[in-house]
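Progress note, sequence design subtask.
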């Protein structure tokens, strides 16, 4: 969410009515989240000036660990230098820390492609935004789950019950530090996640949703502590309930 919001902001800055705008003091502390959107807190160090040049050799974009050769345009300006400066700063201050973590395994190669392409400045802001929107579409639609074995059949569903809330087994990345609370597309994906966890015996898909509209599922290491809840369904591994009649 943070990276996508940042890319949308940089897309606007690259195509603003004033021209391409560079954020000269590009640091995480210069941004805040407001209603799920990233905002710049200080525009004092923004600039629409692009570096003047006479030849391509005048257009090297330098960073502490990398340098990028750019083209000198017919107008005597370094082509896209403001856009590329913003994008590489987004890569080194945000993408490298946030993109490799917490995505479903099927989407990680796509995020890795974005990371590598922006780190080498092979993508401009237009291509970067399209790549992020593609990942978001796959994530929200559940299309990344195609051609996976159906595992929900290995679970017994109990309608009208939920597990007692409390400290359970931990997992990463969890929306709750007390237990294992993860975003899922469906109960089928939750079953796959539970199967992949050594201590998971049951799960419940909650009524709470993330910014993408995906429900949160709570995974538990036991299923014996059940309480009535007309709006809930608890899913229990058949192996966990063997020998018991539900």
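Output:
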């Amino acid at each position: 969410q943070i990276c996508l919001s940042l890319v949308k902001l940089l897309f606007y800055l690259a195509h603003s009515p004033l021209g391409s705008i560079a954020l000269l003091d590009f640091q995480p502390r210069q941004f805040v989240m407001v209603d799920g959107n990233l905002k710049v807190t200080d525009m004092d160090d923004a600039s629409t000036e692009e570096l003047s040049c006479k030849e391509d050799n005048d257009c090297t974009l330098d960073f502490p660990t990398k340098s990028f050769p750019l083209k000198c345009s017919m107008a005597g300006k370094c082509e896209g230098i403001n856009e590329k400066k913003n994008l590489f700063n987004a890569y080194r201050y945000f993408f490298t820390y946030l993109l490799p973590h917490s995505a479903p395994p099927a989407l990680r190669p796509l995020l890795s492609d974005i990371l590598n392409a922006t780190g080498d400045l092979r993508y401009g802001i237009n291509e970067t935004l399209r790549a992020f929107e593609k990942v978001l579409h796959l994530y929200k639609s559940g299309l990344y789950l195609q051609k996976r074995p159906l595992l929900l059949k290995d679970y017994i569903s109990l309608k009208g019950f939920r597990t007692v809330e409390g400290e359970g087994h931990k997992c990463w990345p969890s929306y709750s530090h007390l237990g294992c609370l993860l975003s899922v597309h469906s109960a089928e994906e939750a079953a796959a996640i539970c199967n992949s966890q050594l201590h998971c015996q049951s799960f419940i898909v909650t009524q709470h949703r993330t910014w993408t509209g995906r429900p949160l599922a709570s995974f538990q290491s036991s299923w014996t502590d059940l309480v009535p809840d007309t709006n809930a369904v608890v899913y229990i591994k058949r192996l966990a309930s063997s020998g018991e009649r539900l």
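The mean pLDDT is 89. Work on this subtask will continue into the next period as scheduled.
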